[in-house]
Amino acid sequence: MELSEKEKKAARAFARLGGLKGGKARGEAMTPEERSQQARDAAQARWAKRDVMHRDIPQAPHTAILTIGGVEIPCAVLDGGLRVLSERGVMKALGGSEEAPAGDA
């Protein structure tokens, strides 16, 4: 049986209303310890999701100074030894403005 769009919309509104009432009733039925545990579990789930999303971002466990021709440029050293230079550090080392050019962010 296929519902019309009007029926689907009414069903969603009805389910939302029940969900709003159910969440409040569930909270009122819980002891303070149970509510605290529920909040702790929810926070851990959010942090676990965040960790999965950021897993592939390279980490820079070391910072160093890269000296080229007597000019010192601050750099970050990523896992695996890759050196990363900031635009600000390069511009300062070359004698330019430390601010990024307009339009670059």
Number of domains: 2
Kindly, what is the distance between the CA atoms of the first and last residues, rounded to a whole number of angstroms?
54 Å
How many E strands? Answer: 3
Strand adjacency order, main sheet: 1-2-3
- Number of helices, counting only DSSP H or I runs of 4 residues or more: 3
Poorly predicted regions: none
What features would you describe in this structure?
The protein has 105 residues and is an alpha+beta fold. It folds into two domains: 5-53; 58-105, no CATH class. The protein is built from three helices and three strands, in the order ααβββα. A three-stranded antiparallel β-sheet has the order 1-2-3. A hairpin with a 5-residue loop joins β2 (71-77) and β3. The two termini are 54 Å apart.
Key traits:
105 residues, 3 helices, alpha+beta, three-stranded antiparallel sheet
In short:
The protein is of the alpha+beta class and 105 residues long. Helices cover 51% and strands 16% of the residues.
Summarize the SSE layout with pairings.
Elements: H1 5-29, H2 32-53, E1 62-68, E2 71-77, E3 83-85, H3 87-93
Antiparallel strand pairs: 1-2, 2-3
